[in-house]
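Question (not urgent): is this output format expected?
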Amino acid sequence: MTNGKFQNRTEEFVFQMCRETFLSLWSYANPRRDQGKELCDVLVVCEPDVVVISVKDAELNFDATPEVAVKRWLRSAVQKSVKQVYGADRWLQDHGDRVIRHDGIEGLSLPSKESRRTHRISVSLGSNGLVPLHSADYGKGFVHVLDERSFLLLMAGLDTITDFVDYLKAKEELAASRPGLSVDGEENLLAIYLHRGRKFPSDLPDGPIPGGLWNKLISDPAFRRKVQEDKVSYIWDRLLEYFGEHALAGTFEFGNELTENEVVFREMARESRFGRRVLGAAFKTFLDRAQIGELRARVCKSIRGTGYLFMNARPDATREDRRMELEMRSFVARGELDCETVIGICVNVKEAPQGYCEDVLMLHLPEWTPEYAEQAEKIKEDLGFFAKPLVSRDHVDEYPSE
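Got this back:
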């Protein structure tokens, strides 16, 4: 991109993908090798997952016979993309321990090779859906081969890192167990996955899976209600992007080490879309009630088991006072929620004399000892924390009934 303008369709496609699905802190457009050469089009790093994406654009030219045109397009759009994916994967295994951004600045550390889960994606533009594509092991590991429509559909339907990589893993396992399985369109495979509770059933037929399943799913009233209910979840995405931009720019008042900050925000980013719906609704309720002075703090536990504390800072509180109160409330919340990890988020919902503020911390206490429990009770008694706690424990259905 030069002067804010995209040079080609592939570049624009890559940029939108990074911003809208994987969020800025974990996605890298056009990362580099240490020699300065381009590694791939997009690299997504959210420990323990690494997603390597290559995007190629080629015109399907029918001046030749259809057979020759398809063969040429596959060579230009798919084979070159797969080759780049394998090359990037090999370089990361042999040399990479940290991401190198397109401008040469170091980004996040890569997950250790022992824990790393690599997913390879080839996106081929230009066929207008006229050429069937096949995800398979092309010799050096499984590659998800997608066209523009199917990839955009996956990103729209699985638009968090957790939802996205969970589908990729399930698809890779399905391909390993059913090598002869044939599906008419990626969207129909996704429809089966979502309809069956985000997994592939063991009773899939041996023959080709018919089309039309995706259209059937999205016309289901329950699915439409899910989409409507998910709107509140994007509060969580906006919060993450806000924190992520500060982490990348190094503009936090204290603690600007990218890797250290990313650990906290990664815990938040690992929440699924359904999990973000629950958290987004809880955070919105907190903000609304804090705005009218009805409460100072709220605690909730996410679907994946992480505890969250939302706190409204006192207008006259110093940074040290805010931080101390947030730490104490998070410690008490660890006992109240019975979870190993609590993330405390402090804001002031109305502008204070010194302006607006945000504080974030992560408390990880795998063991809750009797001594900790005693300390928490004393803090509650002395400071009146959670005398009338607002705790989110309501049952929520991903696909709500009417």
